[in-house]
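Thread: Newbie trying to understand structure tokens

Hi all, I'm a second-year student working on a class project, and my supervisor (Dr. K.) asked me to get a predicted structure for one chain before our next meeting. I've only ever worked with sequences, so writing a 3D structure as a token string is new to me. If someone could post the tokens and maybe explain what I'm looking at, I'd be very grateful. Here's the chain:
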Amino acid sequence: MIIDLAKKVLEIESEAISNLIPRLNKEFEKAVHAIYNCKGRIVLTGMGKSGIICKKISGTLASIGMPSFFLHPAEAIHGDIGMVQQDDIIIAISYSGETEEITKLLELIKRIGLMVIAMTGSKDSSLARHSDIILDVRVEKEACPFDLIPTSSTTAALAMGDAIAIALLNLKGFKEEDLMTYHPGGTIGRKVLKVENLMHTGDQIPKVYAQASMREAIKMMSEKKLGVTSVVDDSNTLLGIITDGDLRRLLEKHYNLLEKSAHECMTLNPKLISKKELAAKALNIMEQLKITSLLIVDEQKRIEGIIHLHDLWRTQLF
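---
Reply by user tm_fold:
Sure, no problem. This is what the structure looks like when written as tokens:
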């Protein structure tokens, strides 16, 4: 009984979203372009459950670099309308289109002269009549058995908000790495974190010149504590690498290892990565090759940095 009821709810709500697809018309395009060209902020307003949906849409817009905030309509008509500026755009959500607080707020908004985008289930409502752009989010019925509790209608409004946000994301030419600007923390921040944000640079990079002795190379590895040292020429161009694993193998072959030069003992063509690559890619390479460090070089193969497995552990990418 419970599972059957839950399935019915999801069927009704999924149908409510599907029914929005044929209604995506010129009005939707106008709304997206208006928001994209907005010189101010995107202000969302709605009462009750619609207000909660407004907050989510506002948060999504902010996460793609569109300044946005939620304005409670009841608070707005008691002074908070001062938060709104001349260049802002209002997105008002009311399924009936007759929410008292919204209709009262519309009088103030139109007096200021702001554009209003309505999300409503009634194109003949007061909200629709006083709006510049109307997005039809009507549903056949609520998932509630009494057809009263906002369920399908709020789901439809939320989905329409997501459609606007993703259309804007595409219009802005938003890239995966741009998310780092707006999502520096959390799971998303970790996913878009770049190598350059984690790599060791300058004096932190373990490196010795080709002519250096292995005694110097081992000392460098011990000092920097990254388990490797790079080998470079006089112009800081990478020639090779010496790792802890190399040392063990070399000790088995050469009794006079400390007297040899770094150039004689280095491994050629080590695995490299660009500083612009995602940290997740660096982790993937290390896991596949079973190594603990990657060197970062520029186009001329000059060393720019090094990233270690421990640096990735700290980001909780695992």
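A couple of things are worth pointing out once you decode it. The mean pLDDT is 90. The domain at 2-174 is CATH 3.40.50.10490 (Rossmann fold). Feel free to ask follow-ups in this thread.
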